[in-house]
């Protein structure tokens, strides 16, 4: 039954990329939804318009990008892989680069959607550039030079706000709005076209260069991810078995105490035979899960060694890990032949 | 069905994923709560700030406490903090790790509320409308200061007669909302940058100690759960035997009464202790539960569990060489075995 469970788990994990793609799609939808739920509120004051619009155009994309990175578990994995001591497994910078690129690409999608939607909608652009509208061309050009610049700015700053706009004698509001929205939509579509083109080029041109190295990096980055997950899962299983056996022994010790008490000083049965835990199938299974690690110090050493000195990527060599080499731990001569996956390209 | 049960068990076995689920649920509840709350600014000079700030800060506090309550690990952490050392030393690093993970998850829902309130703007407009500088808006040139104050206090209420359809009100309201949204987005940005840096930079510091703390905090949580389960099992066993004992004693008493009618009196007060049928509750597997069979013994077991948890060394505990719990002084084990900090 544990095998079936493991098969299911591995299946879910083997499609790590499709899982991350799903998350990325959800975030893109969330980004569009967030924009429509957000109530854009242009201040309509000369100095504040540009600051507010720039903020709305740039801060949420940054937030979405970082959120996309934070939610991706691979970030801490990447940092861990980057900072770990080489130990018996050399580090491959190509793998790190691949992991970083794939994470960054996925995290970029939601911010791009936000910027595109903002530009296509036009409110942000209108708010930012309403004071830069060419009044002489669009409105009553003759009246414009007569106004002092601050007054003109104050008038024009109110263009995005229909209920407080009072400059109809100078420039019809609708005209300015249409003009700015049209420019904004043109910019929006150009942006969308540019990013799509870029994505297409990157995707289709890449197989022309270093495809072999790319396949290697992809494989080893998946491997590192799966290895970390399996290690965590094994640790949890071990903790569970440890706790079970610990509690069982606690109860048994209680048993033993009480039996000794009941014997009233008469020779109690020898410790070997009294309250010997029945060697049932359940108890054996638990002891197996412990894999020989039965105390706190050893477990701590195991965890330290996992970080400081990851095992080499070469199965079949039963290296003595818990022998004399244990205390030395880290500084062993890194044997070059075990690092067979370092790309030579 | 087997597979689903195993999957469910798996997701529950990692306490972190359960806590993440609870945290997300609480955040969703917060969003729903905010959207269904009917905001109602008093529009009176001194009460505005009180209402606005109160609504901005009190629900987050309540949500934070809810987050702590809903998280089982907060109780486990406090227990681990306050227990006597007994045979198992306490590691302050593990307690700190558990504390920080509990706090992080409990902070999610309050932050969601504060950010929603700031991005929506109503709280901010209500709280700070009286503090706006009238110089910024030319519409106030013709009003006396007291009139201005009255007007500003009524800005949050769109339907009030004094300020209905007034461009000045709309301008002030806009200004405040834009300020509120700017503050909201800045806070979001700062928080997300901090979260990102924390996630990225953590492996740069003390990764090995972190791995240990994470393992042992998960262990403490699992152990607590398993102990509760074992106690439940024991209680069930105990109850079963108690009930069987009662029925058997009834039976033997009735038999004794029946016999007494024919023969000499037999003391009905010596009920035979029945052996619980072997196959009924898995015989030998429950052997470790059998000896504890009275109220005082159970109490003694539970208080020993609290005051003197067994050491984290299974080989030393299993060998019943020196006698039981009461004789077991803190083992003179080689210091490397029970040491909590590695020698590497």
Automatic annotation (TrEMBL), chain A:
Q: Note the topology in the membrane.
A: Multi-pass membrane protein
Q: State the superkingdom.
A: Eukaryota
The Gene Ontology CC terms held by the record are: plasma membrane
User: Membrane-spanning residues where?
Assistant: 20-38, 50-73, 183-202
A single GO molecular function, which one?
Answer: monoatomic cation channel activity
Q: Which family does it belong to?
A: Belongs to the CALHM family.
- Name of the molecule in the record: Calcium homeostasis modulator 1
